[in-house]
Amino acid sequence: MRNILKNIFTPHTSRTFSFRHINKFIPPRFFKPFIVLLFFAQMIDAIYSPLFALDFKGRANFWSLYQTDDVDSTTVAVVYNISDLSTPIGVVVGKDIAIECSKPTHSCTYRKIGEGGELTLEHITDAGRSSYGKIGGDSLLTNIGISGKATEKKWSGNIDGNFSKLFLDNRALLGGQKNRFRFYEFNAQYEDAKYEVSLGRKSIQADILVDGVSGKYFFGAKENKDSKSIGFFAGFAPDTITKNISSDSFTFGPTFHFVPDFSSEGPVKLLVESSLVTEIYKGDMNRFYLFSRAHFTPVKELSFFSYSTLELPWMKDNANLKSSQFTFQTLWHPNEEWFFSIGFSQFAIDRFLQEQAVRWVTDNSSKSTRVSDSLDKSQRYRLDLRASFRPIYEFQPFIRARYERRTFDSNKLFLNSVTGQTPSLDLGLLNRKNAYSGTGGVRLFLWEEFETESSATFSQRFQSSSWEAYQFFSYDTSKQISFDAYFQFVSSNRTINNSVPSAAGTDDHAYDFYAGTGVSYRFLSDFLAQIRYDFSNEDEKVLDRRTITHSALVRLDYRF
Question: How far apart are CA 454 and CA 470, in angstroms?
Answer without folding.
Answer: 6
